[in-house]
Design a protein that fits this description.
This protein has 433 residues and is of the alpha/beta class. The protein contains 15 helices and 14 strands.
C-alpha cells in the first residue's frame, strides 16, 4: 500500500536564510518525487535538467527506485556542501528495503540543477552480534484468505533442528521489523538470534498491511483484538509448525503483544516457551493514563487538561462509559474494555511453559515499576520464570540516555538492539530448548 511521505528537516539556527528556503524546496521536491507528482518535480528543475529529466523519465525513475529499494520511510542524515554558485544536499534515506543516497543540487536561482539516487550501505555502526553468513532470510506469506500477511523467516544454516521464535508486535500498525525512523528492532533481534542458531519468524501486523480496510470489513462477532492479534497469531503458529527443521516454538510478545501472548500460549498446544519483551501488563487505560502523567511537562499538558484526562481514564477503568464512546477517530472505549479481559498474570498461571521476561530500565511505556516488578513479585520463586532488566535500554532495547524524561521521539535516533539483550535471549533459549 503506497504511503504518503512527509519529510522533516531540522535546520541549525546559524544557517543562512537562503539555505532554509532551499531546505523547504528540497522537502517539496522529494515529497513530489516519492508521491508521484511528476509535474511538480519537473516544474522545480532548471531548464538544463528539464531537457534531460522530463516527466516520463521522472516517472520511470520513481518506479525503478521503489522497485529496487521499496517506499520511502525516513531521512537518516543530511549533509550540505557549498560549491558556489551551487549548493549540494546529500541525504541518506531509509527505505523499506534498505538505504539510498540522494544528491540534489540547487543553482543560484533555487532551481534543481542535479538529482541522483544511488544505493547506500546501512549508515549505522555495524552490529557485532550479527553474522549474515550463519543464516538465510526468506520472504514468507501466510494467513487467512484475503488477509494474508507478509513476513520474513531467518533460518540458521545448519543440519540440526533448531528452536524458532515468533515475534508478536506491539500496539498500532507495526510492521515485521518494528520500523521506527532508521531503527528496525525486530530485524535486529531476528538477525542476532539467527546468527546464534535460533530461527525467527516475524510478520506485518494486519493493521500495518491492511489499514482502514480492517474496520470496513469487520463482522458482527469480531472484536478488534481477534483481528489485530488472535487470528494472525494462530496462523503464524500454524505456519511455523509446518517448517522443516524446527525443534520447538517460542512465542515472543513485545509491548502490547506481550499482553496477549500468555493467553495464546495457554490456548495453543504447539507452543513450547514464552518470551515477554517490555511487557505492558497493566490495564490499557492505566497505561494510557500513566503515560499522560509522565509526559505532562514534555508535551506541555496543563493541570486542567491532565485533570480531564485523569477523569476520563478513571471512568474507563471503572467501565462507566458506553462502549461506542469515541476516544479518537477509529478508536472507541470498547477497545479498552476488550483488553480488560486479558490478564497476563492469570494467563501465565495457566501454562506450564518456561517464561523469559525482559525490560529496559529507561522504558517509559512498559515500566519496571508498573509491569516488570508485579510479574517478578508474583513469579520469581517459580523456577519456570527468568527475569532480566537492562540498565540504560529503552522500549526498543536500544541504548538511551539515563535519568532523563523520555519520549517516543528518541526512537528516531538511529541505533541497534543492545548486544546484552541478544546474549541473554540466546543463553535462555539454549538452556531451555
Amino acid at each position: 500500500m503506497k504511503k504518503i511521505f512527509l519529510l522533516l528537516f531540522l535546520i541549525a539556527g546559524s544557517m543562512l536564510i537562503a539555505q532554509t528556503t532551499q531546505t523547504e524546496l528540497l522537502n517539496e521536491y522529494l515529497n513530489a518525487y516519492f508521491n508521484g507528482n511528476y509535474k511538480k518535480v519537473y516544474s522545480m528543475q532548471c531548464e538544463e535538467l528539464k531537457g534531460v529529466f522530463d516527466e516520463e523519465k521522472i516517472k520511470q525513475s520513481v518506479e525503478q527506485v521503489i522497485l529496487a529499494f521499496g517506499n520511502f520511510e525516513s531521512i537518516y542524515s543530511t549533509e550540505i556542501i557549498e560549491q558556489h554558485p551551487y549548493t549540494v544536499y546529500i541525504q541518506i534515506i531509509k527505505t523499506e528495503e534498505g538505504y539510498i543516497k540522494s544528491t540534489i543540487t540547487f543553482d543560484q536561482d533555487d532551481l534543481i540543477a542535479g538529482f541522483y539516487i544511488n544505493a547506500a550501505k546501512d549508515p549505522r555502526t555495524s552490529i557485532a552480534y550479527i553474522d549474515e553468513d550463519k543464516f538465510e532470510e526468506k520472504k514468507i506469506n501466510f494467513g487467512i484468505e484475503g488477509w494474508e500477511l507478509d513476513g520474513a523467516l531467518t533460518m540458521p544454516l545448519t543440519d540440526k533442528a533448531v528452536p524458532l521464535v515468533i515475534i508478536v508486535g506491539g500496539s498500532g500498525p507495526t510492521d515485521m521489523d518494528a520500523s521506527v525512523g532508521a531503527n528496525t528492532p525486530y530485524k535486529d533481534i531476528a538477525y542476532g538470534l539467527s546468527s546464534n542458531g535460533i530461527a525467527v519468524l516475524r510478520y506485518n501486523k494486519r493493521t500495518a498491511q491492511y489499514g482502514a480496510k480492517i474496520s470496513e470489513s469487520m463482522k458482527e462477532n469480531d472484536t478488534m483484538i481477534d483481528i489485530e492479534y488472535i487470528q494472525d497469531i494462530e496462523e503464524a503458529v500454524k505456519f511455523a509448525s509446518k517448517i522443516d527443521g524446527i525443534s520447538s516454538i517460542i512465542l515472543a510478545g513485545h509491548s502490547l503483544g506481550a499482553a496477549i501472548v500468555p493467553y495464546m500460549a495457554a490456548e495453543l498446544n504447539q507452543i513450547d516457551g514464552i518470551m515477554l519483551l517490555a511487557p505492558a501488563i497493566r490495564r490499557m487505560a492505566q497505561v494510557s493514563l500513566d503515560q499522560n502523567i509522565y509526559l505532562k511537562d514534555s508535551y506541555n499538558i496543563t493541570d486542567e487538561q491532565l485533570e480531564q484526562v485523569t477523569q476520563f481514564f478513571t471512568m474507563v477503568l471503572n467501565h462507566e462509559l458506553p462502549e461506542d464512546f469515541v476516544v479518537q477517530p477509529g478508536l472507541t472505549v470498547s477497545y479498552y474494555y476488550e483488553w480488560d479481559k486479558y490478564r497476563a498474570i492469570e494467563d501465565l498461571e495457566n501454562t506450564k511453559l518456561p517464561v523469559l521476561i525482559l525490560i529496559g530500565e529507561e522504558d517509559f511505556q512498559a515500566t519496571v515499576e508498573g509491569d516488570f516488578t508485579p510479574l517478578k513479585e508474583k513469579f520469581q520463586e517459580n523456577e519456570r520464570f527468568e527475569f532480566h532488566s537492562f540498565k540504560g535500554l529503552n522500549h526498543l532495547f536500544i541504548k538511551s540516555e539515563e535519568g532523563i524524561i523520555h519520549t517516543t521521539e528518541e526512537y528516531n535516533i538511529p541505533g541497534f538492539v543492545d548486544e546484552d539483550f541478544i546474549k541473554t535471549v540466546v543463553k535462555w533459549v539454549e538452556s531451555k530448548f
